[in-house]
Specification:
Chain lengths: ~180, ~375
């Protein structure tokens, strides 16, 4: 708030101020009068420790200045450290999560879930193991008199004599 | 290393092109890896993937692999069996495949050709790298010694096949000695007739997860096994049962006792089923599920599997009315294998349903293709 200057006070004393300026000036003068009376009362308090109050006030002012300095320094430091270690760590972690998600969704190995049942059986030309999506088979190469055998532990075999006269035994083991 | 990466990239590029163009393309080199091991008794003379094709079918890729892999025996022993393990990195069915050659007689320095015909259906979008990796799982020699990592229990399986082969060769040699060329021919023709009369059952296997009560069919019943007991078998079946519902059987459990004097580490049973007309079929083998089984002399153990089997024949379901079992293979803790004798298997109930052994199948094929003289020459080699 701006206090009335000497010229304004002179005009007020002469009654030459306008209505609004006269009202503001009158309010200011009333406040000055109150302050003068309060100082007089304070002078009459004999035990007031002025030195200690002064020291405390100075300390409070220094504390306020230091706090203000701290508040003023923080934005400046942030301005230079926008790519701080913490932010870099968060960014790296985000990229890692993104990559991991991509690999999980688009990985080249179609890994079969354990719950999918694998069936082993004989086919028209051999033996086959499948789970609906993938299959693995061993062919008998058109051999005649093929003898199929099943093993209760989950294996299937096909036995035949090949063109070279060797007994060949193909086996598939579901595990 | 750089070449390997380039090959893998080439494989991916070619397969992607096949998918895009929806047509057959040959497989590029590098799509198949073959690993024998540094101290292997076999060496590969190379192979080609020229006959193999990749075909795009909708969202799936069909890969037809046709490989002939010549292998040379560089060991000082004769080889009786070879087991190869096939792994597909981009098919995640959780299963494995193997191709075995048995009843072999490959001397030092001699060649044997392993033929692999394999189909693979996988999503078009797949990772790079070899489509198939082939590893040597084991080699069985004529003295029943074994080489290999044995990831698929090939040592036990091939030893049992070789024991059956020795049993059947000895039998046919005795027939030849007693009845001559004509007698051997008659025996071969009888075996062929028996094989033609064995009813084949179509079996569909499913490894069963824990079955909740809601998933159990209402009509399911517990069916007991009957047993064919062999007096000379080191293991006796005591009692057993499985859950039966129409043409579906699951969760077989059989109590067995070790009546030999030696500890046992593997037991396998043959599992027969009968339909409502009384027709009997060989359904499956039932091995012990515990890989760490140790059955001391005089003790009992349970042979069980959590598998569901569904039976059909000519596209029609075969409803199970009765079941029976017999001990088909035992492995002792010292690695020795027991298999039933021909006298054991000559029982009427088994003779009508059991297929011939791998060796009998080979000898019949030789007799049909090359005649009795070639068969006699073959028997003289052992």
């Amino acid at each position: 708030m701006k206090h009335p200057n000497e010229a304004t006070l002179a005009l007020h004393a002469g009654g030459d101020l306008g209505f609004i300026a006269r009202w503001i000036c009158r309010e200011e003068l009333a406040a000055f009068t109150d302050t003068r009376e309060m100082i007089g009362d304070l002078a009459e308090v004999p035990e007031l420790p002025w030195r200690r109050l002064e020291a405390e006030m100075k300390a409070n002012i220094r504390l306020g200045l230091a706090a203000g300095e701290c508040v003023r320094m923080e934005p400046a430091r942030n301005q230079h450290g926008w790519f701080s270690f913490a932010r870099a760590a968060v960014a790296c972690a985000s990229v890692a999560v993104l990559l991991a998600s991509s690999l999980l969704l688009e990985r080249p190995h179609p890994r079969v879930a354990q719950s999918r049942l694998v069936v082993v059986e004989s086919t028209s030309d051999g033996i086959q193991m499948s789970d609906g999506g993938q299959a693995l088979g061993l062919s008998n190469s058109g051999a005649r008199n093929v003898i199929y055998s099943a093993g209760a532990q989950g294996n299937m075999g096909a036995r035949y004599v090949d063109a070279n006269g060797y007994v060949t035994v193909n086996n598939l083991y579901a595990q | 290393m750089r070449n390997r990466i380039a090959e893998r990239l080439l494989a991916v590029a070619v397969l992607s092109a096949a998918a895009a163009l929806a047509q057959d393309v040959p497989l590029p080199p590098g799509s198949v890896n073959f690993t024998l091991g540094s101290d292997s008794p076999l060496v590969s003379l190379g192979f080609s993937t020229r006959e193999s094709r990749a075909t795009a079918r909708g969202a799936a890729m069909v890969l037809d692999l046709h490989l002939s892999i010549p292998l040379r025996n560089i060991s000082p022993k004769r080889i009786r069996g070879i087991a190869l393990r096939l792994v597909s990195q981009d098919v995640t069915l959780g299963g494995q495949a193997s191709v075995s050659l048995t009843s072999l007689n490959v001397g030092p320095g001699e060649l044997v050709t392993a033929r692999i015909d394999r189909a693979l259906i996988r999503p078009t979008q797949a990772a790079g790298g070899p489509l198939v990796e082939i590893f040597l799982d084991g080699v069985l020699f004529d003295d029943l010694s074994f080489y290999g990592p044995d990831r698929l229990n090939s040592r036990r399986t091939m030893t049992a096949w070789e024991k059956e082969a020795q049993r059947d060769r000895d039998y046919f040699k005795r027939v030849l000695a007693m009845s001559g060329r004509d007698g051997l021919g008659r025996e071969m023709r009888a075996s062929m007739a028996r094989q033609a009369g064995v009813p084949q059952l179509d079996v569909r296997l499913q490894r069963a997860p824990a079955v909740g009560s809601a998933a159990i069919p209402q009509a399911e019943r517990s069916e007991k096994f009957a047993f064919v007991d062999f007096a000379d078998a080191p293991v006796a079946p005591i009692q057993g049962w499985a859950m039966v519902s129409g043409n579906e059987v699951r969760a077989p459990r059989i109590q067995v006792a070790n009546r030999s004097t030696k500890p046992i580490k593997h037991v396998e049973l043959g599992w027969l089923v009968s339909d409502s007309s009384g027709q009997q079929y060989m359904a499956a083998t039932l091995p012990s599920s515990d890989p760490d089984l140790y059955l001391p002399a005089g003790k009992t153990a349970r042979v069980e599997q959590d598998t569901t089997l569904r039976f059909s024949r000519n596209g029609r379901p075969v409803n199970v009315q009765a079941m029976s079992g017999f001990i088909s293979q035992v492995e002792f803790a010292d690695g020795k294998i027991w298999v039933p004798s021909r006298q054991n298997l000559d029982r009427d109930v088994l003779r009508k349903v059991l297929p011939p052994s791998a060796e009998e199948q080979r000898l019949i094929d030789l007799y049909v293709r090359k005649g009795p003289d070639a068969l006699i020459e073959e028997l003289k080699k052992y």
